[in-house]
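Bench log. Compound arrived from synthesis this morning; before running ITC I wanted a structural hypothesis for how adenosine-5-diphosphoribose sits in the protein. Inputs:
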Amino acid sequence: MADLSLRRDDAIVILTGAGISRESGLHTFRDVGGVWSQVKLEDVATPEGYARDPQQVQDFYNARRAQLADPTINPNAAHLALAALEAAWAGPVFIVTQNVDDLHERAGSRAVLHMHGELRRVRCTACGDNREIDGTITLADVCPNCGSIGTRRPDVVWFGEMPYGMDRIYGALAECALFLSIGTSGTVYPAAGFVAEARSHGAFCLELNLEPSQGATMFHQALTGPATELVPNLVAKLLGRG
Ligand code: APR
């Protein structure tokens, strides 16, 4: 395990990807049997795919949103450990997640930024109205703000669209003493470039992943294993309990 000589008031930035939710029962994207082996990302995660067949896109996200209501899908030990770290650490603990699920929040984390949006939010393309949603989005939906019909889309960032919170993220990467990357393949930018940004500002960069990511060599240390083992162990060490 890394020799983390941190002060308790140091800032920590944590990037998470689909791998942290894998042991909660949600599929990753690029592993064997992953989401992109079941449906083409060009069809359901691009503006062009939405323009071509909006019903297919709504169906895809409605199904993934419905999964979040499944009582068997819950935060796992990794999500819970990060929430415990945020509660006990004197400095800021900022989670930047690529995930659109709500498992970090359900685990108790409060400083969470969904750079790729959220399944449980819907956005109106006519007026920009952006609100929580639990059920399905249909092409017949009427925007409760502007009254437009069929303009409500999942508030999920598609390929070719600008991720959320980039200024806030780069500001945090410039200030943190520890940059953790958990459960991401390091294949999608700008998230895959965060380690270089953090490292250039002097952060200690640590990767926790089931297998080395594409960017593993950019980290000071890369630990391999399931998130539900690695993350609680790291948090215990950080809090002086391990
Ligand atoms: N514990 C830790 N890591 C795991 C686990 C686990 N139990 N299971 C899988 N992983 C790792 C895999 O080894 C892989 O490196 O999680 C990573 C998941 O990679 P991807 O499926 O590519 O998911 P992610 O990196 O989050 O994708 C980034 O791509 O399609 C877009 O918008 C989508 O946010 C997503 C982005």
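What the model suggests: The mean pLDDT is 96. The CA atoms of residues 87 and 109 lie 8 Å apart.
ITC booked for Thursday regardless.
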